[in-house]
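User: Hi! Is it possible to get a structure for several chains at once, not just one? Here's what I have:
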Amino acid sequence: MDERYLCQKIAEAVKSVFNMMAGISLEEKEVITSKEEIRGDITGIIGFSNEQTKGSMAISFPIKLAKKTVANMLVSDPESITEDDLIDGIGEIANMVIGDFNNRIENIFTISLPSVVTGKNHLVSFFHDGSPVIISFSDKEGNLLYVLTTLEKIKRR
Amino acid sequence: MDERYLCQKIAEAVKSVFNMMAGISLEEKEVITSKEEIRGDITGIIGFSNEQTKGSMAISFPIKLAKKTVANMLVSDPESITEDDLIDGIGEIANMVIGDFNNRIENIFTISLPSVVTGKNHLVSFFHDGSPVIISFSDKEGNLLYVLTTLEKIKRR
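Assistant: Yes, the chains can be modeled jointly so their relative placement is included. Here is the combined structure:
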């Protein structure tokens, strides 16, 4: 699976899930291949693998966009969103994005459980020998979302 | 796979990897099943899955223990460990723990790529319907390490 094809499918999945689940139109801003890490206030992380390939994806939100996304999912106000709502909502988003991505590539992967990290401006890095791809997205108010995906061929001993 | 068996295998893998890779003896302190989240300064996260089950594991370090672990792995001093060394080292540890765990249960899972989160006292939660297991470990100086693992049966549609 080449990098360009992967980017395209990930971007389609992200836009589709945000639109469907939270009524948020995201615009793809930039594909960054020179960096291996992203920062955010809340991040959903999920792994995927099959016999040939392993990968991971992280979706990092600034807190404002995370609250807006989860509020829209719950048909609620950003001010009334609790930390538990946020964790559940961002985990759900990560799960749906990777599921939608997997659907678009004929479900070749099995998917792990998502984990959610919260902590102001934390850093997410992947440890790997593959090439990471970072895609940034913006909503209409200019809030930025970063999606970091990486794949690695499994080495046989 | 029941919770108790899982705990035992995870604990064995953690102690074996720390001993072998960093010469650190860890003592199992406590198994916590009442919480679903852990905090740390640096965390390695890795997913695993097969056709029936999906899971994730997070290993959260206080910065002092992370530096000591990575310094020992690199046969170096904790003071000379860079942020890049830390990220690589903690990713490697997460990878080896889950690999050792998988070995102990006949390699039934495929493993995703590890990701590493850094940020002082960040929170790691799992989003799931399963039951999470947290095991705490202590080194001889009383530095505490938390390992959060959770498994979930895959629902068929």
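Chain A touches chain B at residues 43-51, 54-56, 58, 87-88, 90-92, 94-95, 110-128, 130, 150-152 (CB under 8 Å). Residues 10 and 101 of chain A are 6 Å apart (CA to CA).

User: Great, thank you!
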